[in-house]
Every structure is written in C-alpha cells, then in structure tokens.
Amino acid sequence: MLGFSHVSLSVRDRDRSAAWYTELFGFEVFEQLDEPEYVEAVLLHRATGTILCLQQHRSNAGEPFDPRRTGADHVAFRIGSRDELVAWEGRLAERGVPFTPVVDRHYGSVLCLRDPDGIQLELFYREQHP
Prior knowledge:
The chain is built from 2 helices and 8 strands, in the order E-H-E-E-E-E-H-E-E-E. By secondary structure, the protein is an alpha/beta fold. Strand 7 (108-114) and strand 8 form a beta hairpin.
C-alpha cells in the first residue's frame, strides 16, 4: 500500500461544494464526471497532492449529512503548526465560515468547521505527527 489515493464525499450540489473547497482551501477542479448515477468533481490540492472527490448522486433526496449513520464521521486536514491553526481562525472568520476555536487535546490541536453539506472538517496539528 502506498497511502490514500483520494477521499470521496457525497454532496447535495457538486458545483456549490467544489466552489467552496476551491475558494477556502485552494483546491482546483482537476476533472468533472457525468455518469448515469452521479456527477462528480475531482479536486486537486497541488501543494500537498491531496485529491478530494465530490459526488452528487442523482438519487440524493437532499438529506443532510449525519455522522451518526454508518459511514464517514469527519475529514481532517493536516496543518503544519499550531500558529497556522490560529491563522486559520482569522481566515475563516473573515469569510464568515462558522468554526470552533482551536482546542488543545493530549493527541493534538484541532479546529472544526463544516462544509456546505454539514460534513465536519478538522484542521489538525500534532507535534511530531507520524
């Protein structure tokens, strides 16, 4: 195994979500798919090589994300320092994105926010992260 290839999230509106992730995190749309069951935006974050896929299933009835159901709970993006986490607080506040302030835990420091579909995202810093 060579690590993760990509993370794929189910969203209600592919284009709205793609715009949000590109504007906030600097992803770019690498590819768009139009399949019989879904449309998808494949996003690339060139600086880190992270690939994020946003699938809008045609059968999606518009229900919101719920981490209590079996499936994904959250996605965490690795941040380079605690100071960078604090800088993200300012960046999110400037853009009107609701978030929790940085919390320091024994396992690391974390700032939480939600994407347009309510999927929890974490910005995570851990000293000597493996």
